[in-house]
């Protein structure tokens, strides 16, 4: 198929940036979206124009590195990652608009590449169980009902891509943050630090400049891993019970 | 040159305990006086960085992705082995050791492999304590499954996302140390060179991928945890950025590269669909527990299938050749990877392959779905089936999957001694970047185990032994050796940018990949390898005179990043070919057509080749020197591997 691509080009963080149009032809339906961009980039390089920069690594939908706002939706029309989106989801002659994630807490680095280190800092604020290597009990001394283990697993599958933030009109990071808080709040290993964890991670989230949650649910609807909104509800419960009984007030 | 592997003496089962007792310790108060550089934040790097920081060392951790959580380990699917014997099915540390040595076709060190099996049990405890959500039984205890080549159920898993969950566990431990101020993170930073002062590793040169800044970092020890080099084949199951650059630059600074030709071709990947393909996708081999591998019994029928005249489901039971079950009745579909891959190649070479290309075989769940029901199969493999459907557009619940072998893992890597130190003092290699534990073929679910064993449970002890014997003195980043290396790196960047040739970096990468796949892939011969060597030499010349790298150094420049990596892959490719050519035997993933049994199985030559082939760089354009480390087997008897 033949396509017109309207792509956001921005030289660096301080550049203003703007859209540029490109044409690609003979695109196979079996190509992934990123392979289609590879074709464009080979074309651009051949003609001496700087290739379009975008983030990607595993191309298997698991590392969370790829992003892209495609036709107004994070990761495009399907509920999957951009690297797992195939060209059969588009039709011949279509114009596709491609932009970076838009959020204050995700500044643009170049073209379609953004800086998501704010997510790392949220995890650093408490997204862990404080155990050192060695000296831990035998794994089977911590039995966990399968139902709880499965639910914690569902929350743990977040790939840290940032689509939830990009989908939200307030650029809120509640879904991402709540997924980690929920995973650890459900498991026995996470109980000891449960209160401080919620408080600290939420404080960090706020200080990074993410917006507030107004419960529209766009995040979960666009999340490639289907992280559930119940995690946000659980996080709110965690937070309020932490604040009510906090030693840090 | 003589390589000292520093293997402890004494009985196998006591070596590690004894060694831990004999090596030197750094006093807790002194640990904070040392700086350690950890390059790579995959399972090996993240676990090492976190554990060393917990002990009190000051750690700097580097990765090229935007976050340490995205290291390629995240993509591992199937599981991690550990000799827990929770299933009471006869597993033990000794059995895991034995399976790994045998699976590696007797080309690994006994002592290393035994230690790996020994610490495997601690890994599971550690991960569970971190909150890693492994699969569980209804009673709340951990579940296991059996995995390629093992007759016991010793594989722990987290749906089809084991690597993700283990890496997020290690990343959480790492994040905690970042918060504690003991680890400083350098994401989007690529290692460009290793710096040695007075023969010891004392730091690295990096390129900031956003600003292009070339910077020096000094330390008391450097750990390379930079993963494998499967992308030398262009198409592989590795992440797009996986590269050999760190290991290769260390190699050019004097670190020996061991067994580079040992590559693993994984039998269950989604077949190539066209020229546009940028990578290959693995379907976890856990699928072989329930899926049955087959091709049509006759060439005629295969042709009809390829032309779309018949469908797989139309083929009657008696017209299907379940060739693995037929040839290997006791292991059946669970034979080790190299055996499964080679047999897929044989049936396709015979003309019985399926898919339009003829380069695929079936992996069929029909019988498993009939036996267990679709729900159970969905619970076990749901995400893999979804992924398959996503990529191919076909529904594997209704017809068989199609699979074909693809490059997956590299057993070769930097030579290390028992302490995981390369032959350069103070330079260590962990995880897939080293050559240590898998011999000529790695068993499924053993790479995650090795990466975490190295990082959590080996390096925290062995690094102390080295540091305790070296002083606290810091070396300034203005030291002439740093300045010299910085200049070399800058010159190389300028050279790449100034060639302004006509062909893109990918063009060269694809050509290299094709040479490697055709002549140094699943089957190799002296004739093909000799030809490949000439072709690679030519390619290298052409690259350095005709590559086109656009843009500048002082910006995010993905073409420049790739150009550095591909330049190193080309040089590595040549060494892989040399190694494959010199090893006149077949073992594990290295199959030389000239050396096979009458039944077409790999024929080892233990008398002449029971050694580690470690290669020493001799300078630009020179042939490398081969250094041999003999392998001594005191506990296992070398036999012809048989899975009949
Ligand atoms: C699709 C797939 C599935 C797999 N499934 C399994 C499985 O089920 N079980 C199993 O045991 N094994 C599996 N493996 C193998 C296993 O995942 C890897 O061998 C293992 O994760 C490697 O870990 P590592 O820590 O050594 O390196 P990696 O995870 O590859 O990490 C490398 C790190 O080094 C950094 N790096 C690399 N080069 C540079 C440089 N020049 N400068 C700076 N940083 C650099 C990267 O940023 C990254 O952080 C699988 C592999 C693949 C490809
Ligand atoms: S919650 Fe979903 S959308 Fe948000 S970062 Fe995680 S995986 Fe991505
Ligand atoms: S590239 Fe890894 S999730 Fe898309």
Q: TL;DR?
A:
Chain A has 249 residues and is of the alpha+beta class. Chain A is built from eight helices and seven strands.
List key phrases describing it:
heterodimer; A: 249 residues; alpha+beta; Ubiquitin-like (UB roll); Fumarate Reductase Iron-sulfur Protein, Chain B, domain 2; 2 domains; 5-stranded mixed sheet; two-stranded antiparallel sheet; 34% helix; elongated; B: 644 residues; Flavocytochrome C3, Chain A, domain 1; Methane Monooxygenase Hydroxylase, Chain G, domain 1; 5-stranded parallel sheet; 19 strands; 38% helix; binds flavin-adenine dinucleotide; binds iron/sulfur cluster; binds FE2/S2 (inorganic) cluster
Describe this structure in words.
The complex is a heterodimer of chains A (249) and B (644). Chain A contains eight helices and seven strands, in the order E-E-H-E-E-E-E-E-H-H-H-H-H-H-H. With 249 residues, chain A is of the alpha+beta class. Chain A folds into two domains: 3-110, Beta-grasp domain (Ubiquitin-like (UB roll)), CATH 3.10.20; 117-245, Orthogonal Bundle (Fumarate Reductase Iron-sulfur Protein, Chain B, domain 2). Chain A has a five-stranded mixed beta sheet with strand order 2-1-5-3-4. A two-stranded antiparallel sheet of chain A has the order 6-7. In chain A, strand 1 and strand 2 (18-24) form a beta hairpin. Chain A starts with a strand and ends in a 5-residue tail after the last helix. Chain B has 644 residues and is an alpha+beta fold. In chain B, the strands form five sheets. Chain B has a five-stranded parallel beta sheet. Chain B has a five-stranded antiparallel beta sheet with strand order 11-15-14-12-13. In chain B, helix 15 runs parallel beside helix 17. The mean pLDDT of chain B is 95. The chains are: A alpha+beta (249), B alpha+beta (644). The structure holds flavin-adenine dinucleotide (FAD), iron/sulfur cluster and FE2/S2 (inorganic) cluster. The site of flavin-adenine dinucleotide (FAD) has 45 residues of chain B, from helix 3, helix 6, strand 6, helix 7 and strand 15.
């Amino acid at each position: 198929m033949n396509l017109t691509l309207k792509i956001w080009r921005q030289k660096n963080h301080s550049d203003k940036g703007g859209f540029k149009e490109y044409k690609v032809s003979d695109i196979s339906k079996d190509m992934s979206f990123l392979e289609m961009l590879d074709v464009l980039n080979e074309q651009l390089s051949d003609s001496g124009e700087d290739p379009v920069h975008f983030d990607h690594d595993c191309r298997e939908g698991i590392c969370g590195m790829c992003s892209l706002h495609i036709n107004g939706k994070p990761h495009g029309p399907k509920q999957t990652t951009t690297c797992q989106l195939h060209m059969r989801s588009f039709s011949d002659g279509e114009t596709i608009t491609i932009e970076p994630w838009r959020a204050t807490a995700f500044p643009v680095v170049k073209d379609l590449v953004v800086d998501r280190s704010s997510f790392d800092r949220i995890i650093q604020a408490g997204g862990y169980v404080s155990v050192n290597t060695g000296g831990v009990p035998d794994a089977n001394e911590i039995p966990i009902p399968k139902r709880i283990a499965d639910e914690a697993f569902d929350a743990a599958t977040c790939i840290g891509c940032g689509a939830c933030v990009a989908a939200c009109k307030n650029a809120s990071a509640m879904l991402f943050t709540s997924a980690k808080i929920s995973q650890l709040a459900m498991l026995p290993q996470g109980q000891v630090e449960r209160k401080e964890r919620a408080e600290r991670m939420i404080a960090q989230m706020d200080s990074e400049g993410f917006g507030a949650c107004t419960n529209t649910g766009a995040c979960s609807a666009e999340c490639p891993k289907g992280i559930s909104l119940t995690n946000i509800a659980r996080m709110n419960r965690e937070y309020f019970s932490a604040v009510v009984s906090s030693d840090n007030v | 040159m003589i390589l000292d592997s520093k293997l402890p003496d004494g009985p196998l089962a006591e070596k590690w305990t004894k060694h831990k007792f004999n090596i030197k310790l750094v006093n807790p108060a002194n640990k904070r006086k040392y700086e350690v550089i950890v390059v790579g934040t995959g399972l090996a790097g993240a676990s090492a960085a976190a554990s060393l920081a917990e002990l009190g060392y000051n750690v700097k951790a580097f990765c090229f992705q935007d976050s340490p959580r995205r290291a390629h380990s995240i993509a591992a699917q199937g599981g991690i082995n550990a000799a827990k014997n929770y299933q009471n099915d006869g597993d033990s540390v000794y059995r895991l050791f034995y399976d790994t040595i045998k699976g590696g076709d007797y080309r690994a060190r006994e002592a290393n492999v035994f230690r790996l099996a020994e610490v495997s049990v601690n890994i599971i405890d550690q991960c569970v304590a971190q909150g890693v959500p492994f699969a569980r039984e209804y009673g709340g205890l951990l579940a296991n499954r059996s995995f390629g080549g093992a007759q016991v159920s010793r594989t722990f898993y987290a749906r089809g996302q084991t690597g993700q969950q283990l890496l997020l566990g290690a990343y959480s431990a790492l994040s905690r140390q970042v918060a504690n101020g003991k680890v400083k993170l350098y994401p989007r930073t690529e290692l460009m060179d290793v710096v040695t002062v007075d023969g010891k590793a004392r730091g690295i040169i990096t390129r900031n991928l956003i600003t292009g800044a070339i910077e020096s970092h000094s330390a008391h020890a450097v750990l390379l945890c930079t993963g494998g080099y499967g992308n030398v084949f262009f198409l592989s199951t590795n992440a797009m950025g996986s590269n050999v650059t760190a290991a290769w630059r260390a190699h050019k600074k004097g670190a020996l590269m061991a067994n580079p030709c040992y590559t693993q071709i994984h039998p269950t990947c989604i077949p190539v669909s066209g020229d546009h393909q940028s990578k290959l996708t693995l379907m976890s081999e856990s699928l072989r527990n329930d899926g049955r591998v087959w091709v049509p019994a006759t060439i005629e029928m295969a042709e009809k299938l390829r032309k779309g005249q018949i469908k797989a489901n139309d083929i009657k039971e008696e017209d299907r050749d379940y060739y693995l079950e037929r040839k290997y009745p006791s292991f059946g579909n669970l034979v080790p990877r190299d055996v499964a891959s080679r047999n897929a190649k044989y049936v396709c070479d015979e003309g019985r392959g399926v898919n339009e290309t003829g380069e695929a075989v079936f992996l069929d769940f029909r019988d498993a779905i009939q036996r267990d029901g679709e729900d159970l199969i969905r619970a076990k493999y749901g995400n893999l089936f979804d992924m398959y459907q996503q990529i191919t557009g076909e529904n594997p619940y209704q017809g068989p999957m199609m699979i074909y072998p693809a490059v997956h893992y590299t057993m070769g890597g930097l030579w290390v001694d028992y302490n995981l130190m390369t032959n350069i003092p103070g330079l260590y290699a962990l995880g897939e970047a080293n050559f240590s534990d898998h011999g000529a073929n790695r068993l499924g679910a053993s790479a995650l185990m090795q990466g975490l064993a190295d990082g959590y449970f080996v390096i925290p002890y062995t690094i102390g032994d080295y540091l305790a014997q070296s002083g606290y003195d810091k070396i300034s980043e203005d030291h002439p050796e740093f300045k010299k290396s910085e200049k070399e790196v800058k010159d190389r960047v300028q050279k790449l940018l100034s060639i302004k040739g006509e062909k893109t970096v990918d063009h060269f990468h694809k050509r290299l990949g094709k040479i490697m796949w055709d002549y140094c892939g699943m089957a190799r011969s002296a004739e093909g390898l000799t030809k490949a060597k000439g072709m690679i030499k030519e390619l290298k010349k052409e690259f350095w005179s005709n590559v086109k790298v656009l843009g500048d150094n002082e910006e995010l420049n993905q073409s420049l990043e790739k150009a550095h990596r591909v330049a190193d892959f080309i040089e590595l490719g040549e060494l892989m070919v040399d190694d494959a050519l010199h090893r006149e035997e077949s073992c594990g993933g290295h199959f030389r057509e000239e050396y096979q049994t009458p039944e077409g199985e790999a024929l080892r030559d233990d008398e002449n080749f029971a050694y580690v082939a470690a290669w020493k760089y001799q300078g630009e354009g020179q042939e490398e020197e081969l250094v041999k480390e003999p392998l001594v087997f005191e506990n296992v008897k070398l036999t012809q591997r048989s899975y009949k």
